[in-house]
Design goal:
The radius of gyration is 19 Å and the shape is flat. It is mainly α. The protein has 4 helices and 2 strands. A hairpin with a 5-residue loop joins strand 1 and strand 2. Strands 1-2 form a two-stranded antiparallel sheet.
C-alpha cells in the first residue's frame, strides 16, 4: 500500500460547528480542566481562566483535545496538532454551510469549478 514515493504523513482537516446551549456548564468544564492541569504556570493559568470566562470559543478550545480524537486509532501516532475556535454566524439553510458542496470551488468572478482540498476519489 505504501510506496517509496508515498508519504507516511497525512493531514486530517476537520471542521465542526457547535451550538452552545449552556454557556455556564461549558465555562465551568473549561475552568475544571484548567484547575486539573498541574503543569500550567500560575500566570498562564490566570490568563487562561480569564479567557475562558469571557469567551465561550476559548472555553471550547481548552476542552477539545486533538490527541483524544486519534488516540484509539490503530497504527497512527499524532505528530502535530493545532486548532482554533471562534464565534460565527451560522445558518444551516445557507448554501455556504452545505457540507455536501465542499468539492465545488467558486472563483472571484462567481464561476463554479470542481476541485478538492484533499481526499480519496
Amino acid at each position: 500500500m505504501s510506496t517509496p514515493e508515498t508519504s507516511r504523513f497525512v493531514r486530517l482537516r476537520v471542521e465542526l460547528v457547535l451550538e452552545i446551549d449552556d454557556e455556564n456548564a461549558l465555562t465551568k468544564a473549561a475552568l475544571r480542566r484548567l484547575a486539573d492541569d498541574q503543569e500550567m504556570p500560575a500566570a498562564e493559568r490566570a490568563h487562561a481562566e480569564s479567557a475562558v470566562t469571557e469567551d465561550t470559543a476559548e472555553a471550547i478550545a481548552y476542552l477539545v483535545e486533538p490527541f483524544d480524537l486519534v488516540s484509539e486509532v490503530p497504527g497512527v501516532e499524532l505528530q502535530q496538532a493545532s486548532w482554533s475556535s471562534e464565534p460565527i454566524d451560522y445558518d444551516p439553510d445557507s448554501r455556504e454551510w452545505d457540507l455536501d458542496d465542499d468539492d465545488v470551488e467558486v472563483d472571484d468572478d462567481g464561476d463554479e469549478g470542481v476541485g478538492r482540498a484533499g481526499g480519496i476519489d
